[in-house]
Amino acid sequence: MFKIFLARYSERLSCAVKFELKSLSGKDGQGCRVSNRLFYLSIPPNIFVDVVRCASLKASSTSGWTRVIVEKPFGRDLESSSELTRSLKKYLTEEQIFRIDHYLGKELVENLSVLRFSNLVFEPLWSRNYIRNVQFIFSEDFGTEGRGGYFDHYGIIRDIMQNHLLQILALFAMETPVSLDAEDIRNEKVKVLRSMRPLQLEDVILGQYKGHSKGAKSYPAYTDDPTVPNGSITPTFSAAALFIDNARWDGVPFLMKAGKALHTKRAEIRVQFRHVPGNLYKRNFGTDMDKATNELVLRLQPDEAIYLKINNKVPGVGMRLDRSDLNLLYKAKYRGEIPDAYERLLLDAIEGERRLFIRSDELDAAWALFTPLLKELEEKKIAPELYPYGSRGPVGAHYLAAKHNVRWGDLSGDD
Predict the structure, then answer these.
(1) Has 164 been annotated as catalytic?
(2) Start and end of every Glucose-6-phosphate dehydrogenase NAD-binding domain (predicted)?
């Protein structure tokens, strides 16, 4: 027996917290010896601690477990995040706290470790010896649309890169865990994060979308949103190059790109492999050997898919080569409905499965990478490069990729 408590903020009462209780039974503990309680806090961060204190002191289960799901943001930097963790731990143990990042519940993210650790064809290739670069791409084809007040306080780096994309990167790059136990997996993720260099300003590009007209339709600029402060320089786009200083990944660029109001909606991981040494067919590809690069793509959304780009001979007389896809499209292969990420994670919290939830030391390591950069951006008040609504983002992102001898895979035009 368990109850789910949804904590919501009451806008009418400036300092009031209202609990809306939704249970599986009309009465707590009816017909059961044990009563469990799960609190889901999807509320402003400034009242996290007040709600947790009330829940812990007044509404904890006396016969079963009590757990709290905390929705991001987990602070704005390392200091505020650490303070939030310290405050929560006055009333809860680490085992009771479930920091939720819904991207970790997506089907393709779940499948990432399966793809790597249960397929012999991939695991030997998963290192600097064969992988040239890895790209984590998140794009939305809409702007803030009335949510500018929240977004302007955090920006695209805090909203997407420091949590969603960095968590996926850690899962991608970690060493083989001892087991599938939650602590073993989270231990390996922490090792990856602690092996990474803090982000440098020269390896980051910022952008902000501006108004754009296409035919008879006009698209607003970020600062046209009435909930956004006038003259805001909060970035709605960012690209960054990160590096992991360990034996497996030394020298491999891990590129992140995230933005709003872009030309398409997608989230994907793109693994670009090294060129074939002494390629016998290099004359068939011309001088641009990137056209011959093998690439593994995991599309998280929309239309979940895994595909591998390989070189193939076009049937017929002569030797004409083409890059083709070995494609696993989920909706074609699996007819059943793919569960929503939140469904999966809520069920995990009920079962006490912590594998896809973020541990406190993991959160500290993630913030340690981004906090120096974020402080420098705010102190220097660096203005973002403007890009048109519905475009492919600021030109600076291409220069950043070129600096590290990389091309963005989502801009190749052959997907």
Answers:
(1) yes
(2) 31-111
